[in-house]
Design brief:
The protein contains 18 helices and 3 strands. The protein is mainly α. It folds into 3 domains: 118 residues, no CATH class; 99 residues, no CATH class; 98 residues, no CATH class. It has a 3-stranded antiparallel β-sheet with strand order 1-2-3. A hairpin with a 2-residue loop joins strand 2 and strand 3. Helix 11 crosses helix 12, helix 13 crosses helix 16 and helix 17 crosses helix 18. The protein is globular and about 85 Å long.
Length: 375
């Protein structure tokens, strides 16, 4: 089963003729409005069985939702739904919103929750055509009023990130959150399981709140001085308060992929004055530059990487290590260089959830991300 839906507990009002007769045998298919899949998922297992079935059903019901909901009727014109392998992406009038599967599985889900999120975005209220004006800066501005991208990381990836932390750090984060009668956590994996369960439940609760409700619910959560109090910054601050800085960073750290050789080099697109001009330099030249650094400097750079990459790139030969590191950094930079503005914005916000900068150009964001990831 693709999605395990809990029967909805949200109240609704139906016309009398849409309801089945009381205490009389009847056919479920004759009353589709009453036996809605959200309220009677056990009668519609095919809807939740595959990503294709669920996305097709959700897209159709979101599109028709404006015909029955007066609150959402004026908010949008069209919707498209797709599953990318880890999260559900809902495009509302060309603006993309990402949701975890748990958002739809919970008994509190309603279609209105999708459009409430959409309504809080600046591009939605201003009527901006995101397909035309989409930039990294505009994506960051939109993300500040939405759930951050790191909310939707796959659980397996977050688990791997948490396992890189020491048991003492994980224990310090989990202990204040546990009830006195909960079972004793003895192993590192127990702490990770608990933190994942706690964070998932907390995110599911928050994801249904409108922006104003979050401001009220988390009114005591402080954000750094000079940082705007938005949905994204408040949630990032609350994660730090709940789990501590190191665990919160592990939750936010974006995935990296191993180097490949099919990413085009922006040789003609990058001027010599650009901060990313080094991307058009040959790998051999970059390796020679890196070789001038000491072994200690290279090891310090490797220590900033996820554990699998440290083992893969730390070779016996200084030159081979530098060459492998150059390939990895260059591939990461090229991947970000060619990424769509939403992806670049999500990576930047994950690393710098409280950043306030006047220069939100793609080149500047890319430079800051690489400085943070590799030093």
């Amino acid at each position: 089963m693709f999605l395990v839906k809990q029967p909805s507990i949200k109240s609704r009002v139906l016309n009398y003729e849409l309801c089945p007769p009381h205490d009389l045998l009847h056919d479920v298919e004759s009353y589709p409005a009453y036996y809605d899949p959200l309220y009677y998922p056990h009668f519609h297992t095919h809807v939740f069985s595959t990503p294709e079935n669920f996305c097709g059903w959700l897209e159709a019901t979101l599109s028709s939702h404006r015909d029955v909901c007066t609150s959402c009727r004026t908010l949008y014109k069209s919707t498209v739904v797709a599953y990318d392998g880890s999260v559900l992406c809902v495009w509302v009038d060309n603006i993309s919103l990402s949701f975890t599967l748990s958002h739809f599985e919970t008994a509190l889900y309603s279609h209105c929750s999708v459009f409430r999120r959409y309504a809080t975005l600046p591009s939605a209220s201003s009527g901006t055509n995101s397909a035309v004006s989409l930039t990294a800066a505009s994506c960051i501005a939109s993300r500040l009023h939405d759930d951050p991208g790191w909310f939707t990381y796959p659980e397996d990836y977050v688990r791997a990130q948490l396992l890189t932390l020491s048991s003492s750090i994980l224990s310090s984060a989990a202990s204040p959150l546990r009830s006195p009668r909960s079972r004793v956590l003895r192993k590192k994996s127990d702490y990770v399981d608990f933190l994942l369960m706690h964070s998932s439940a907390w995110k599911a609760q928050i994801s249904f709140m409108a922006h104003d409700d979050i401001l009220n619910h988390l009114s005591s959560t402080a954000v750094p001085h000079g940082c705007p109090r938005t949905r994204s910054t408040i949630l990032a601050s609350e994660f730090v308060r709940l789990y501590g800085d190191q665990v919160a960073t592990a939750f936010r750290t974006p995935p990296q992929s191993a180097a490949a050789f099919d990413v085009p080099t922006p040789s003609a697109a990058v001027s010599s004055a650009s901060p990313t001009s080094w991307l058009s330099v040959s790998i051999d030249d970059l390796t020679r530059r890196l070789e001038k650094l000491s072994r200690a400097d290279i090891l310090h750079c490797l220590s900033r990487l996820p554990t699998p990459f440290r083992k893969m790139l730390d070779l016996r030969s200084h030159r081979k290590t530098c060459n492998a590191l150059v390939n990895h950094i260059r591939y990461r930079a090229l991947s970000l260089f060619h990424a769509d503005p939403r992806t670049l914005a999500d990576v930047f916000v994950a690393h710098f959830p409280f950043a306030v900068s006047n220069d939100m150009s793609s080149a500047n964001l890319l430079t800051q991300i690489l400085d943070h990831e590799f030093g």
